[in-house]
Amino acid sequence: MRVLLIALFALAAIAPASAADLKLLTAGAFKSVALELVPEFEKKTGHKVTVENDTAGGLARRIAGGEYFDVVVLPPAALAPLLGSKAVESSVKPLARVGIGVAIKQGAPVPDISSVDAFKQTLLAARAIAYTDPASGGTAGIYLAKLFEKMGIAEQLKPKSVLVKGGLAAEKIVSGEAEIAMQPASELLAVPGVVLVGPIPLEVQNYTIYAGAVSATARDQGAADALLAALHGPDKAALLKKKGMELP
Description:
Layout: H1 2-18, E1 21-27, H2 28-45, E2 48-54, H3 56-64, E3 71-74, H4 76-79, E4 93-98, E5 100-105, H5 116-125, E6 129-132, H6 139-151, H7 154-157, E7 161-164, H8 171-174, E8 180-184, H9 185-188, E9 194-199, E10 208-214, H10 221-231, H11 237-242
């Protein structure tokens, strides 16, 4: 009996050290995928993962400012300046890519976005459109602002643009503040009560790749590596498709 008690105490002492508390920072477009994969990872490993999301620019600023993380998921352009100092360059893994989509309220008339001209006319006719505020550092918001300039409709859209500083643009449809929302398709699909009409026309589409990297100062490097590995791989294709994304 004494030997058994000693063994149990030894296991109890070891268990907490073998389980890590991990922090995953992810740009909003990949959040829905991460939230679906993390529970299975926790179940298999015993590690606990806190998932936080922000715009790509917001996360880059937070990390540059010294915020602790174990794994980060960002577009390559936002991730590149962090490699070496904040994230391990050799750990980088491409995880997914996603295009910009258009969403409307469930049951609303479906707008025509089948061509660039039809897309342009749909935007001009809309009462209000929601998308990520470019000033917040959101990749899609920055691209859309430039696209509107290129299409020559930026000034006309300004009065009816509902800029989202962080979070899901499609929530503005549910609240009645916007008629149309544009964001990476994975973020639009994350909002109940809205319908994804489809991607913006291919001629003006912008695909964003999301890559993951492990922190250079992770407290448990092995656990952080395992978390990133759980987010990566061709076996994630079906889940990515369900979430509006695809393999990179």
